[in-house]
Specification:
Layout lengths: L7 H11 L7 H5 L6 H16 L3 H24 L5 H15 L19 H18 L15 H13 L8 H21 L2 H21 L4 H25 L9 H13 L6
Helix pairs in contact: 1-4, 3-4, 7-9, 8-9, 10-11
Length: 273
């Protein structure tokens, strides 16, 4: 049987029905802007995972879940007279056109710019446009609008990239590596002094320097750490399988046995990692 082809209008109607005070879903009716934020973050991470695994049918499903979050916020905004779904779309289209003058001539969607801009020109224009937007929001500082709610790794990377726009940056990756070693030495001294406050501060400096090094190497710190975590997870699972085959568990092993098992798992036996 052919699948019914629903539209955005159908989705908006479904959301309105879910929030109907008399006939809607009791759970959906109880929600507000703040209570659904955790769900929004969770759906975004699930989408990122599906993309990482190249599970594209699942990507389509997760994109729908993310879209539902937008629809939910739009319904809440409409109910409170704050904004509507059309407001969201209009604001987005206006911003995209305004931020891409190298594509949309004279600010018109069908306006075509004859000369193709270079990537470097686009980056320079983009930041200039963003700076004008920040000043319009009374946020003139280069770092003013970097969201505090961002996960720590991408926020550190974004702060560093912004600072680099005014040449507050290391000259190359070698200089960053030297700085990382300096921060590790300071952490070592703090540990030796058994100063909890200094240890926490120096540990943060080490992590911040690691993010900076990743940036200078052209890597995304969040993706790099996710990949490392996935590699560790796979190898650890392999250790459990190997141990189970010997009728034992990891908890029953001493450090030497665990180290040997880890090395065996690293060799992979044909596994991805």
């Amino acid at each position: 049987m052919e699948q019914v082809q629903y539209t955005v209008a159908d989705l908006l109607r479904v959301m309105a029905r879910l929030r109907d005070p008399q006939t809607g879903c009791p759970w959906d009716i109880r929600q507000d802007f703040k209570t659904i934020v955790p769900s929004t973050l969770e759906e975004c991470y699930e989408l990122a995972q599906a993309i990482e695994y190249e599970d594209y049918p699942h990507v389509a499903e997760e994109l729908g879940d993310v879209l539902f979050q937008v629809i939910f916020y739009a319904q809440l905004g409409s109910e409170q007279g704050l904004f509507s779904f059309n407001t969201i779309v209009a604001t987005l289209v206006e911003k995209l056109v305004r931020r891409h003058p190298h594509v949309f001539a004279d600010g018109a969607i069908e306006g075509v710019v004859s000369r193709r801009a270079t990537v470097d020109e686009i980056k320079q224009n983009w930041e200039a446009i963003k700076q004008v937007e920040r000043e319009g929001k009374a946020q003139p500082g280069i770092l003013a609008d970097v969201p505090v709610a961002l996960p720590a790794l991408p926020r550190a990377q974004k702060l560093q990239k912004r600072a680099a726009l005014v040449n507050f940056d290391w000259s190359d990756s070698g200089a960053v590596l030297a700085k990382l070693q300096e921060e590790i030495d300071e952490l070592r001294h703090a540990i030796a002094a058994q100063s909890e406050g200094e240890i926490a501060e120096e540990m943060g400096d080490v992590l911040f320097s690691c993010v900076n090094l990743a940036r200078h190497l052209g890597l995304d710190a969040e993706s790099s750490l996710r990949n490392a975590s996935g590699k560790f997870e796979q190898r650890f699972a392999d250790m459990e399988v190997i141990a189970a085959a010997d009728n034992t568990t990891l908890a029953e092993m001493d450090q030497e046995q665990l180290d040997a098992l880890w090395e065996q798992a690293k060799r992979g036996g044909g596994r991805l990692w």
